[in-house]
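User: Fold this; tokens only.

Assistant: Input:
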Amino acid sequence: MKNIHENSTLSYKEHQEEGKQESWRRKVWDVFNEWGVPLCDSEVHEALGFPDINDIRPEITRMKQEGLLVEGKEKVKSPYTNKRVRVCVTSGLPYREKILKEDDNG
């Protein structure tokens, strides 16, 4: 049985080969830019109407790792799942200072 990371890596490679990754990245980026507010993964998924949230969740994580998105310091309750989840926002929006993770080093 493959672990989640192996499956994610395989899926990512398949999407790159199919040319989906760049188009999904652009669509995800456009949602964050157009809405201009912190969004959870479910809100982005709903806005895009993709059939599976796992189509966009890894892309949000990659964009966060690359510094295109920043994650809020606190979890919020998803309006779709009623569970506590992350929210992200583009790194250049005014909300950035408000939602950046606090740096314990000052």
